[in-house]
Prior knowledge:
The structure holds two protein chains of two kinds. By secondary structure, chain A is of the alpha+beta class. Chain A is built from 17 helices and eleven strands. Chain A has helices at about 10-30, 35-40, 90-95, 95-115, 120-130, 150, 160-175, 235-240, 245-270, 285-295, 335-340, 345-350, 380-390, 395-400, 410-420, 425-435, 445-450; strands at about 1-5, 5, 60, 180-185, 200-205, 210, 215-220, 225-230, 275, 315-320, 330. Helices cover about 75% and strands about 0% of the residues of chain B. Chain B is elongated. At the A-B interface, helix 1 of A face helix 1 and helix 2 of B.
Amino acid sequence: xxxxxxxxxxxxxxxxxxxxxxxxxxxxxxxxxxxxxxxxxxxxxxxxxxxxxxxxxxxxxxxxxxxxxxxxxxxxxxxxxxxxxxxxxxxxxxxxxxxxxxxxxxxxxxxxxxxxxxxxxxxxxxxxxxxxxxxxxxxxxxxxxxxxxxxxxxxxxxxxxxxxxxxxxxxxxxxxxxxxxxxxxxxxxxxxxxxxxxxxxxxxxxxxxxxxxxxxxxxxxxxxxxxxxxxxxxxxxxxxxxxxxxxxxxxxxxxxxxxxxxxxxxxxxxxxxxxxxxxxxxxxxxxxxxxxxxxxxxxxxxxxxxxxxxxxxxxxxxxxxxxxxxxxxxxxxxxxxxxxxxxxxxxxxxxxxxxxxxxxxxxxxxxxxxxxxxxxxxxxxxxxxxxxxxxxxxxxxxxxxxxxxxxxxxxxxxxxxxxxxxxxxxxxxxxxxxxxxxxxxxxxxxxxxxxxxxxxxxxxxxxxxxx
Amino acid sequence: xxxxxxxxxxxxxxxxxxxxxxxxxxxxxxxxxxxxxxxxxxxxxxxxxxxxxxxxxxxxxxxxxxxxxxx
Lengths: 467, 71
């Protein structure tokens, strides 16, 4: 109503405008592109002096990991007794059986190629082959970067918090998803292998400089800070497991981990410090264990690291340095507790290799397991056999079905993760809803080639969840 | 001429009605966000469930509003 040229709003009109405005704002927020929403909190400065990401309230830092460990019973592991590399698998099933399984796998691969089976077609194999290029993994690093001494300047110095922060910033820039640090003490030192996959012993020494011989790799006692980092896998891609198309995202992550390691080793060298890396894939130490101790995630029923941010959709790597850094503590995000009730991975595991026990156990299932911690130990032989006879790949079904393997666009995922952390009695309900909503169902392999996915199939703006 | 009287009855909405409408609105926003985001996440079943839920809650609110308005 206009009076004397002034427009006056009555209470009814004001409330109408306010309601419409609120509704419009809500719709705008809802329809805001997810990527843009993901960037709204990104690009700020670290609030923590050591550069630790600010995690949601329901991710609690704890003194002891959610995996119980009897350090006095744990010994450094000989990685050649595992089932993945070296003589491990053949030593358990016999050379003849191992050869037979290899032939079955090769024949099946050829037949699937000829039959153009989705997920196993020539283009899927070609994509997997694209990741065969190698940057190279070396224990001592490429050693190409000039040291401060060669430059004629003092080495970099700073507080442990500063050191952790610049390493995190550098590694995030190079491509790591999350970074954590663990100090090697009399306990955590046991997470370093006794023998590397290539048969070389890993020996701690009082000498200041690391070196390696034909038989051994020598780790200076000063190199007592483990740099642990994760690399994302494409959750969208691995949901096609167990095909070649799905498993190549694993290969890509390992390739990226290799490049990140080499670049970080050069970065540390240029600062004036040593950085000892994995001499081959998954060498040096127990990756999931280091991930747990560095607070990057928790152990799980599928016996791999499950992170609050990406679920199991990560690969974990580690290096050792003599640059003192601020270390991290384990976390409790309700993941291990959820695993007690969920069992979705065990149900989905075709060869039945995963444990169905309600509680984790101290009892190992074979020499491929490392005793001294309470876990859902797996039957690795069954797993690796099925990979050869049926999957034709390193499978990954357990990763794909895990309820924690989610993107971060829908609000409900964070609510559910928070709920699993603070209200374990609701875990069964959440598991049921995960099934009802169709999460974890294998996706179409041919459709993948028509998707407009982000770079590497991952969201690189989401290192941590929004708070 | 007899006087004509028109009686207007003004009902003030009670506080709990406001609260319930606010909850309804928040629920709509929640369901819409999850529906749109599930589509972006390429989760078709979740997208469908959230949209159906959104539609049900929207229609339910509409029905309640219509019925109360005509009481």
